[in-house]
Amino acid sequence: MAPELSSTSYAVLALLGVRPWSAYELAQQMSRSLSWYWPKAESLVYAECKKLAGHELATSRQEPRGRRPRTVYTITDRGREALRGWLDQPAGGPRLEWEAMLQVAFADHGSREQLLENLEAIRVDAEERRDRALAQVAGYVGDGGPFPDRLPVIALVGKFFLEYSDLLARWSAWAEENVGRWHGLRPGDAAVPAAAFEPGAWSGPHRPVDEP
Question: What are the domain boundaries of the chain?
C-alpha cells in the first residue's frame, strides 16, 4: 500500500526524479523555482527527505564534503512509481491568499493615502518579481538553464509567472493612477473607473487611465 504523502512530499520527490540532491541543494532549488508557487520553509525540506527515505521512496548516502559529510538523496523505482501515481490524480485549482488585496478590498475604512501606499507597495513588489522572472527567462533563452532537457515543461510554468507578475505590475499601476485622481474614498469623492469591469480594460502596458 502506497504511503500517504503531502503535496510537498511529492514536490521533493519530483525534484529527486530530476537528479540526486543533498537536502541543502533541494532547499536552494525549491527557493529558486518552486517558491513561485509552492513556498515552503527550508526546515520542512529536510524533514521531507527523511520521510521519503523512511518510506523507501528514496535512498540516502553519505558523501565527504569538507569537514562534515553531506547526505545525498536519490529516488528509487518505488518512488518513481509513486510520483507517476500522483501525476495521475486530479488536483484542485489555485487559491489566492493575499493580505494586501484584503486591505485594498476594505480600503474605504481607512484613508486614500493608506490605499495609495498599499498600491505602491504592491506595484514595487510586482515589478521586482517581474524583473526576477525576466532574469530567469534570460538564462533559459541563453543556455537552457540548469536543466535544458526539461525546458519544454519549464517554459509552461515560466510563461505563467512572467505573465502573472506583469499583470500585477500593470494592475497596481492602473489602480494607483486612478486612486491618485480621487479626492477621497467616500461617495462623491471617488468614482468607478470607466471600463473597470470589462475584460482587458487595463491589458496594455501604457493604456491611458480613464478619468473618474
Answer: 7-87, 99-181
Q: Which three cell numbers stand for residue 127?
A: 515589478
State the cell numbers at 186.
Answer: 467616500
Distance CA 203, CA 205 (A): 7
Q: Which residues pair with 63 in a beta bridge?
A: 70
User: Can you tell me the distance from the alpha carbon of 44 to that of 144, in angstroms, rounded to the nearest whole number?
Assistant: 29
What pLDDT does residue 208 have?
39
Q: How many secondary structure helices (H) and strands (E) does the chain include? A: 7, 3
- With both helix axes pointing from N to C terminus, report the angle between 7-18 and 42-54 in degrees, rounded to the nearest 10: 80
Neighbours of 122 (CB within 10 A): 22
Q: How far is CA 20 from the centre of its chain?
A: 24
Tens of pLDDT along 154-169? Answer: 999 999 999 999 999 9
Q: Are 52 and 58 in contact (CB under 8 A)?
A: yes
Q: Which of 60, 85, 64 is nearest to 75 (CA)?
A: 60
Can you read off the three cell numbers belonging to residue 59?
535512498
> What value does the mean pLDDT take over residues 56-73?
90
For residue 190, the cross-strand partners are: 187
pTM: 0.82
The answer as to CATH 1.10.10.10 being correct for domain 7-87 is yes
Contact status, residue 116 vs residue 103, Cβ threshold 8 Å: no
Instruction: Select the more confidently predicted residue: 182 or 210.
Output: 182
